[in-house]
Amino acid sequence: MVTPLTHLDPGASGRIVWIAGDEATREMLAQRGVVADAVITFRYRTPVLKLQAYGILDSVFFLSRKNAGEIFVEEQ
User: Fold this and answer.
1) For residues 4 and 70, what is the distance between their CA atoms, to the nearest angstrom?
2) pTM, entire model
3) Which residues of 46-59 are buried (b: 16+ CB within 10 A; e: fewer)?
4) CA 61 to CA 51: how far, in whole Å?
5) What average pLDDT score do residues 22-31 get?
6) Is the distance from CB of 15 to CB of 74 less than 8 angstroms?
7) Percent of the chain residues past pLDDT 90, beyond the cut
8) Is 72:27 a contact under the CB 8 Å cutoff?
9) Fewest beta carbons less than 10 Å away: which of 19, 23, 31, 36?
10) Which of 75, 69, 72, 37 is nearest to 56 (CA)?
11) Are 38 and 14 in contact (CB under 8 A)?
12) Does 74 score more than 90 pLDDT?
């Protein structure tokens, strides 16, 4: 089943199926390796700044909840 990235629990991974949002957002995400077919892992949520940490391979980066909600994954 395909769900927004924001629906994953910490520690869960998913294969990116598609990315919504405008071209600038998709380009910013692609620079971090967030592209279709990549496997992304939800690392943790920061309670104060409302950011969420995700990882692809050995990299870890933060996304806003809005940006994470525009990434749709198939949970693994």
Assistant:
1) 7
2) 0.91
3) eeeeebbebebeee
4) 10
5) 95
6) yes
7) 88
8) no
9) 23
10) 37
11) no
12) yes
Give residue 51's identity as a one-letter amino acid code: L
Q: What are phi and psi of 29, to 5 degrees?
A: -65, -40
Determine phi and psi for 32, rounding to 5 degrees.
-95, 0
Amino acid identity, position 57: L
Three state DSSP letters for the chain: CEEEHHHCCCCCEEEEEEECCCHHHHHHHHHCCCCCCCEEEEEEEECCCCEEEEEECCEEEEEEHHHHHCEEEEEC
